[in-house]
Here is the input.
Amino acid sequence: MEIIIAGHAGFCFGVKRAISTAYETVDKAGGEVGTIGPLIHNPQVVSRLESVGVRPIENIRDFHGEALIIRSHGVSQSMVKTAEDAGIRLVDATCPFVKKAQEYARRLKEEGYTVVIVGDKNHPEVQGILSYAGESALVAAIPQDLDVLNKVRKIGIIAQTTTTFEKFEQVVKQCLHQANEIKIYNTICDETHVRQQEAQGIARRVDVMLVAGGRNSGNTTRLAELCRLTGTRTFHIETRDEIDPAWFHGAGKVGITAGASTPEWIIEEMIERLNQISGESV
Here is the structure.
């Protein structure tokens, strides 16, 4: 069995920064450290952080610890205000690319644009960006989501940092029919685009594709979707224990990629599991 591993699999810059911030904060803190929701979308990493004293909290008002970390996906302005009003010390671990999207949303709102955010309306990153975009803002995952938007004079468009360029392009094209003036900020993270292209390229060369990452991770889910579009059998897994030997009957080549919040040790454990299945070093 031959294994092809994506060169860009695993932690991205923003996730590395957030995790480093969390460990530094808990090392220096004299009391409890929390995160507003999971720091990143990987249950295994979140569990390890909890073991050293960094735990996710759902209700800011219930937190009485030393410091509260803003997760890598960012949070809404109302959450920040709630924490500040409660006198809680905030540590900002928002990914810089997400911060840029928030700033563009604010700028477009102030310039009088109806803001359209291309992405998943239920994702915490998008919910945070939406709070900067004004009451008229709209989230669109597909062009049809714009059907509720009447003809407007000005539309400003930004993207969830992990959305696909194809989805962004489709929504932008639809916006051309619904406004006289359009301003576009392509806020898709460059590394996300590279990962997606690389994953599809590997998927086309192998018999089975494994995509590692949290099931609550939007960027990992998109990697799996893109790999499936190539026609290659693709499995989205969180840990090595989910790997089924039956998947590899007759498979000569296996591809591995991983979401931006997947640690290297999970990828290494997957390779060990494939070694066990094949009975040889792969």
